[in-house]
Design a protein that fits this description.
The complex is a heterodimer of chains A (100) and B (376). By secondary structure, chain A is α+β, with helices and mostly antiparallel strands. Helices cover 39% and strands 22% of the residues of chain A. A three-stranded antiparallel beta sheet of chain A has the order 2-1-3. Mean pLDDT of chain A is 78; it is low at 96-100. In chain B, strand 1 (213-223) and strand 2 form a beta hairpin. Chain B has two domains: 29-191, no CATH class; 196-368, Peptidyl-tRNA hydrolase (Rossmann fold), CATH 3.40.50. Classes of the chains: A alpha+beta (100), B alpha/beta (376). The complex binds zinc ion. Residues 52, 54-55, 57, 77, 79-80, 82 of chain A line the site of zinc ion.
C-alpha cells in the first residue's frame, strides 16, 4: 500500500528528505567514530641504539628503564666482545613499526 | 479505489509541503539555538575526554610517586601541589621586571622541587626526583587545561552565549591534541627517555664526545643545575654549556653564559661568539628534524634567560648565532623521534662550518638549550 503510494508521487520530496536524513545520520556516525579513535592513546615503541666502543658494531634493542645516552649498560658486542654504549634513544609509532 | 488513492497522495503532498515551510520557519527563528546545542554537545564531549586525560595523568603520577613514598596522606599533599600557582610581578612600571620575574620563578622552582622531595621517603637518585617533578608539572598543565575549558564551557552554557561557545568549539580540538601530548609526555618523563626538546643538550653532548674533540675541563654545577665543559676541537677552544643530566632539567643557560663571558673577559681571553642550539616549533607542513641557522637567542621559556643572554651579548658586542631543529609541540615533549635524533650529525657539521668560516678569532661559547632528560 505504502510503496504504491510513494510510486504514485509525482515529486521526489519525500525521497529527497529520506536521502538527506540518511546522509546526515552517516556523517554523525563517522564523526562519533572519529572521536572514539582520537581517544585511543598508543604508547610508542621506544628503541635503544647501542654502538660498540671497539669496532662500531650497531645493535638495536628495546628501551629499559634507567637507560640514558652514553650509558654503558653492560651489553657486550656480538662481534668482538667489547663494551657497548647507548648512542641514541628514540621512539617509533606502532604503525611505522608494523610497516618495517 | 483509484481515485481514493489519488486523493490520499494529494493530502500527503500538502502535509509534506506544510512540513517544508515549517522547517524553514523553525530554522529561521531557532537556527542559532539549534546550532548552540549542537556545539554544546560537541564541546561537552571533548570536555569529558579532557577530564579522562586529566584523571589518567593524575593516576599515572600518583602511582609513580607511591612507588617511592611511604607518606599516608599523599593524596592531599599531591592535590596541594597540583593546585599551586605562581603570580607574575606587576608590569605597570616595567623597569627591572626581569629581576623580579627571575626571583619569583626561582622561588617557585625551589619550592616545587622541595615539595616533591618531601613526598618521597626513599633515598633515590636526584635524576629520578627531577623526572618525578617533571611528571607533576605535566599533570599540572593538563589540570589547568581542563579547568579553563570547563570554565568557558559552563560560562557559555549559563549565559547561553552562542559566540563564546562557537569560539570554544573552534579551539577545543586543537587544545585536545595538546592535552594528549601532555599525557604522552608523562610517559617519557616516567621512563626518563630523551624528548624532542632534548635535541639541544644531545647535540652538544655528542659534539664533546666526538672522536675529534678533547674534553679539557668539566665544571659540574657551574651555576645552579648547569654544567660547563671546556673542550678542544680542530685547534679551537669551545666552552660548552648544558643543563646537568640525566634528570629532566633545563638549567640556567643564561646565567651560565653570563658567568663564563665575565670570567673570560677577566682573563683577557678573546671570544669569537656564541652559538645556541635549541628545538623550535615547526610550521605545519615543515619536515620534522629539519635543521636551520639564524641569529638571535634561541631559547624559549618565560624570558629571563633569553634577556640575560641578549644583554651580555649586546654589552660585549658578541655575535649571537642560533641553530634550530624543527619539530611540533607533540614531538617536542614526547620521546624523541628518530628523525629528530638523526639531525645530530647535520647540526655538528654546521657548528664546524661556523667555527671554520665565520667565528674564526677566539674561543666559542656553545650552549645546548632544552630539557636534558636522558642525556648526562
Ligand atoms: Zn665490537
Amino acid at each position: 500500500m505504502i510503496t504504491k503510494l510513494v510510486l504514485q508521487f509525482d515529486n521526489f520530496e519525500l525521497l529527497i528528505l529520506f536521502a538527506v536524513a540518511i546522509i546526515f545520520f552517516l556523517i554523525l556516525l563517522t564523526d562519533i567514530k572519529k572521536q572514539g579513535r582520537r581517544m585511543t592513546l598508543v604508547n610508542p615503541e621506544i628503541k635503544v641504539q647501542l654502538l660498540c666502543e671497539e669496532c662500531g658494531f650497531k645493535e638495536i634493542r628495546d628501551f629499559k628503564e634507567g637507560d640514558y645516552i652514553s650509558k654503558k649498560p653492560g651489553d657486550k658486542c656480538e662481534k668482538c666482545g667489547g663494551d657497548m654504549y647507548i648512542d641514541i634513544i628514540y621512539s617509533i609509532s606502532k604503525q611505522e613499526g608494523a610497516r618495517q | 479505489m483509484v481515485s481514493n488513492t489519488l486523493q490520499l497522495a494529494d493530502e500527503f503532498n500538502i502535509i509534506i509541503q506544510t512540513l517544508y515551510i515549517l522547517l524553514f520557519v523553525v530554522l529561521i527563528f531557532f537556527g542559532q539555538r539549534i546550532q548552540f546545542h549542537l556545539s554544546l554537545m560537541e564541546v561537552g564531549g571533548i570536555l569529558r575526554q579532557l577530564l579522562h586525560l586529566r584523571n589518567a595523568a593524575v593516576k599515572m603520577t600518583m602511582d609513580e610517586l607511591k612507588k617511592y613514598s611511604s607518606e599516608k596522606d599523599i593524596n592531599s599533599k599531591f592535590e596541594r601541589l597540583l593546585n599551586s600557582f605562581m603570580i607574575m610581578p606587576e608590569a605597570v612600571d616595567p623597569a627591572g621586571i626581569v629581576k623580579k620575574i627571575e626571583h619569583i620563578v626561582n622561588t617557585r622552582e625551589t619550592r616545587f622541587l622541595d615539595d616533591v622531595r618531601r613526598l618521597i621517603s626513599q633515598d633515590i637518585e636526584e635524576s629520578k626526583i627531577r623526572n618525578l617533578s617533571n611528571m607533576v608539572e605535566a599533570t599540572m598543565a593538563l589540570n589547568i587545561i581542563y579547568k579553563i575549558i570547563q570554565h568557558y564551557y559552563l560560562l557559555a552554557k549559563k549565559t547561553k552565549n552562542f559566540f563564546v561557545m562557537a569560539q570554544l568549539q573552534m579551539i577545543a580540538p586543537l587544545i585536545f591534541n595538546e592535552a594528549k601530548s601532555y599525557l604522552q609526555a608523562l610517559n617519557a618523563f616516567k621512563l626518563g627517555t630523551p624528548i624532542g626538546d632534548t635535541i639541544g643538550p644531545l647535540i652538544v653532548h655528542k659534539f664533546m664526545n666526538h672522536q675529534e674533540t678533547k674534553i679539557l675541563e668539566h665544571k659540574k654545577d657551574y651555576v645552579k643545575d648547569t654544567d660547563l665543559y671546556k673542550v678542544e676541537r680542530n685547534g679551537r677552544i669551545f666552552y660548552i654549556i648544558k643543563a646537568s643530566g640525566p634528570g629532566g632539567n633545563v638549567g640556567k643557560p643564561g646565567e651560565a653564559i653570563k658567568k663564563v663571558i665575565n670570567s673570560l673577559k677577566k682573563r683577557n681571553e678573546k671570544i669569537a661568539g656564541i652559538i645556541m642550539i635549541d628545538a623550535a616549533l615547526k610550521l605545519e607542513g615543515e619536515k620534522t628534524g629539519e635543521v636551520a641557522e639564524g641569529v638571535g637567542a634561541a631559547i624559549g621559556g618565560i624570558g629571563v634567560e633569553k634577556f640575560k643572554i641578549e644583554e651580555i651579548a649586546t654589552k660585549n658586542k658578541l655575535p649571537l648565532y642560533a641553530i634550530i631543529i624543527k619539530q611540533s609541540l607533540m614531538e617536542a615533549i614526547t620521546t624523541m623521534k628518530k628523525e629528530i635524533a638523526d639531525s645530530v650529525s647535520d647540526a655538528i657539521s654546521r657548528i664546524d662550518r661556523i667555527s671554520r668560516e665565520e667565528l674564526v678569532d677566539g674561543c666559542i661559547i656553545l650552549a645546548g638549550i632544552g630539557n636534558t632528560i636522558g642525556v648526562p
